[in-house]
Design a protein that fits this description.
The protein is an alpha/beta fold. The protein contains eight helices and 19 strands. The strands form six sheets. Strands 1-5-4-6-7-11 form a six-stranded mixed sheet, sandwiched between helices. Strands 12-17-16-14 form a four-stranded mixed sheet, with no helix packed on it. It has a three-stranded mixed sheet with strand order 3-2-15, with no helix packed on it. Helix 5 (148-167) crosses helix 6 (179-192). The longest helix has 20 residues, at 148-167. The protein starts with a helix and ends with a helix.
Length: 389
């Protein structure tokens, strides 16, 4: 298999791959815990000029080709907090990343988390995640040297430090994607569900990962899925696929869980109660690794985009679908020959120019619905504050 193919396969992590990598890990010995009282061990903290202070200005391109610039301003006095765990992006050569954030860690926080700064104060720990290199090694038949338990222990320690040092009784939203979501599922199960801190959970956004739920209870453990905009203490979770390219029947990655009697959660952030709705996505000409897309995306004919992000109102809709044993967010792009905008969106994991169908739109799980996710968190913050009075 070509180097290009392995590089593509290593770009993202799935539940199956992550679990396998952890199971085959052979750590040299107990690692020294990180000291999260040291601000240097945090990728993002409030009041700093860090990865989460990146410019979020967007060019809005309407169906008729008209444009406007949407400015962005973080709220330094936001009433709640957000705690983010980023996906598998580390390009470090070892099995686990070091604690020095490189471009991929900074870029993905910019794309997936910084925009939440308009509704919450932002906390994102650096952590010794299982790297792309470790997953490549496993997939080429070797024994992965990535230690998933180390990655989890770092996030758990950061969470405990955040609660002790920063939280001060405030409501908090958990935000994760891919490996980050897998870690947050374990954190929810072991450190939050049924514990006193559960009352402070505004919501958990478990994105790009299979969250096992009991269909009869519509819940992960005791945490219900979010079905109303003013609901708190709940979970939003989905994996995304193009509506015309659903998960292959043989897929074991996204949209299906192994637990008997359970199914993968799907909550459409644009329509919590169900049904189809336009997604308010924020797209970029850079990948989640921070590299420029090749070929560069042309968002609209004769339109030059100089802002970091682009918004294309009405171009994309989505609906949660339960089909052929899979549960996922089915994403539909609505091209129009009279519309000067692009007829498609990026987001597939490509190998030699062809999409890996098992992965769907994993690379843009968060970007697809970023505006909707931020809006929901804003409404949940209001509901949480009202209930606390």
């Amino acid at each position: 298999m070509s180097r290009k193919l392995w590089a593509a396969l290593g770009l993202v992590t799935t539940l199956g791959l992550s679990t396998s990598a952890c199971a085959q890990a052979a750590p040299a010995g107990p690692a020294t815990p990180n000291d999260y009282t040291q601000d240097a061990n945090w990728l993002c903290r409030p009041g700093r000029a860090d990865a989460c202070a990146a410019d979020q200005t967007a060019t809005v391109i309407q169906a008729n080709g008209s444009t406007s610039v949407e400015t962005f301003k973080a709220d330094p006095n936001a009433p709640i907090d957000c705690f983010y765990v980023y996906p598998t992006v580390s390009s470090d050569p070892g099995g686990n990343s070091d604690m020095t954030p490189d471009l991929p860690e900074k870029a993905v926080a910019d794309q997936q988390f910084a925009r939440f700064g308009s509704v919450c104060k932002l906390y994102a720990p650096s952590y010794r995640q299982v790297t792309i290199a470790a997953l490549r090694k496993m997939m080429t038949g070797g024994t992965s040297n990535g230690d998933g338990e180390l990655a989890y222990a770092d996030v758990r320690d950061a969470w405990k430090d955040y609660l002790a040092r920063d939280n001060k009784g405030r409501g908090v939203v958990l935000v994760g994607h891919s490996q980050g979501s897998r870690i947050l599922l374990k954190l929810l199960k072991e450190e939050i569900d049924g514990k006193p801190v559960q009352k402070q959970l505004v919501s958990a956004l478990i994105l790009g990962m299979n969250t096992p739920v009991d269909p009869a209870k519509d819940a992960y453990g005791s945490l219900p899925l979010c079905r109303k905009v003013d609901q708190t203490g709940c979970v939003i979770s989905y994996v995304s696929f193009r509506a015309d390219a659903p998960p292959p029947a043989s897929s074991k990655f996204f949209g299906k869980v192994a637990e008997p009697g359970m199914k993968a959660a799907c909550v459409n952030p644009a329509a919590l109660a169900g049904g189809s709705a336009p997604l308010r996505g924020y797209f970029s000409d850079r990948t989640i690794m921070g590299t420029v897309m090749r070929p560069a995306t042309v968002w609209a004919k004769d339109v030059t985009v100089s802002t970091p992000y682009v918004e294309l109102p009405g171009l994309v809709t989505a609906e949660c679908v339960s089909k052929d044993g899979f549960d996922y967010l089915a994403v539909t792009v609505h091209p129009d020959k009279a519309d000067p905008r692009a007829d498609n969106i990026p987001g597939d994991l490509l190998v030699l120019g062809q999409p890996l169908k098992d992965w769907g739109l994993h690379l843009v799980d968060v970007n697809l619905a970023m505006g909707d996710l931020v809006a929901v968190v804003g409404e949940q913050s209001k509901a949480y504050a009202a209930a606390a009075k």
